[in-house]
TrEMBL record:
Gene this chain is encoded by: LOC103625846
Pfam families tied to this protein: bZIP_1
PROSITE patterns: BZIP (PS50217), BZIP_BASIC (PS00036)
Compositional bias ranges of the Basic residues kind: 61-81
GO CC annotations on file: nucleus
Key words, A-Z: DNA-binding, Nucleus, Transcription, Transcription regulation
Biological process, per Gene Ontology: positive regulation of DNA-templated transcription
Domain BZIP: 59-122
Source species: Zea mays (Maize)
Name of this chain's protein: Ocs element-binding factor 1
Classification via SMART domains: BRLZ
Compartments (UniProt record): Nucleus
Length: 165
């Protein structure tokens, strides 16, 4: 593609005028003497149109690469920021879950202690009842020494009356 300056120089050379177009402030040709698109394209070398300047092509390639790198870096930073936000949310969720589990663990530990205390009390009570039951059984098997005396109730002897009330 031609620059404006190149187009003006090409047009002034095809019209046959030698005026300095950039300093005049007006175009040196009239509508009848203005070159057409065909004339301008014909005067442009075909090789130059197909094979642009290698330095210019290299500059454009570098610019495209810079732009591509900038966009890639922007996408990378956005992905990194999104990942960081996801990790922060996950950390907050895990901290909340940890607090819930610690509270639950403390409640279960208190309940476990209460159950162990109740177990110990029930075992002690079961042992006492077993001893009393053995005492009643052994008392019932003893022969009565005096024939006319009524035996005392076993429950009264062993103090089991308080257990039945």
């Amino acid at each position: 593609m031609l620059s404006v300056q190149e187009a003006l120089e090409l047009a002034s050379s095809s019209c046959g005028t030698t005026m300095d177009v950039t300093t005049c402030g007006f175009t040196p040709w009239g509508p009848e003497s203005c070159p057409g698109l065909e004339q301008v394209m014909a005067s442009t070398p075909a090789a130059a149109a197909r094979h642009p300047d290698p330095e210019e092509e290299e500059r454009r390639r570098r610019q495209r690469r810079k732009l591509s790198n900038r966009l890639s870096a922007r996408r990378s930073r956005a992905r990194k920021q999104q990942r960081l936000e996801e990790l922060r949310a996950e950390a907050a969720r895990l901290r909340g879950q940890k607090r819930e589990l610690e509270a639950r663990l403390q409640a279960l530990a208190r309940h476990g202690l209460a159950v162990r205390c109740q177990n110990a009390r029930l075992r002690a009570e079961a042992a006492a009842l077993a001893r009393r039951l053995l005492a009643i059984a052994s008392y019932a098997q003893q022969p009565q020494h005096k024939a006319g005396v009524a035996p005392a109730p076993a429950a009264a002897l062993l103090g089991l009356a308080s257990l039945t009330t």
